[in-house]
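Below is just one:
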Amino acid sequence: MRILITNDDGINAPGLAVLTEIAEALAGPEGEVWCVAPAFEQSGVAHAISYTQPMMVSEMAPRRYAVQGSPADCVLAGLHDILKGNPPDLVLSGVNRGNNAAENAVYSGTLGAAMEAALNGIRAIALSQFYGPANKDLGDTFEASRVHGLGTVQRLLDKGVWTDDDYGIFYNVNFPPVPASGVKGLKAAPQGFRRDMGFGVEPHLSPSGRRFLWVTGAPQQQPTSPGSDAAVNLDGYISATPMRADLTAHDILERLKAIE
């Protein structure tokens, strides 16, 4: 199996090292793992691409490249330049430091990479590690994803639903904020929503008197609706959420025909 890995935390991020272990075990001795990841952290860029400027690509080691661009740029570089003519069988993105459950998924560069792969007809899975009081101080904060990542990806490849339509399925996987021994299992879950928990901004003055705004987050321990991704994560389960790039609100399309 040929696997392309990337992330949004940057090529030197510890989560990418965890993903490399997962991918190498999955690919096996006869397979290939190619890494094409952002040269610097690109958290929160979602599915952005560098449409108005070029991106520099640097070969760091055999099958390992750093791109001065977004995670989606990295997938484009991997598919259409570095691996041109020899596409991967699978794209893995992560392991993100922090959850990409609920509304976080909308902002996630980790998911942006998986989405871009799916738009190019490649199977893709985004993986993220939820943090909380039970795992944030562990010696290995990625313990849950390190131990359970390979089995989770393999199960999705063997038992997951994959489609060949225009907006193909990709998967958003979040590992719970617990030690590996505390993981209860894997659950299929819809994307949740944390009410009154969105991003905001906080103004600060620089030493020179210039005014800057820092984007602020919110506590991540509030569960979403029962059975949704963040809720099952906080209950100790790995969540797997099938997603598409299609943004149509299909549930109201028929009702909207009243405007015609």
Notes: The mean pLDDT is 96. Residues 2-195+223-259 form a domain with the Stationary-phase Survival Protein Sure Homolog; Chain: A, fold (CATH 3.40.1210.10).
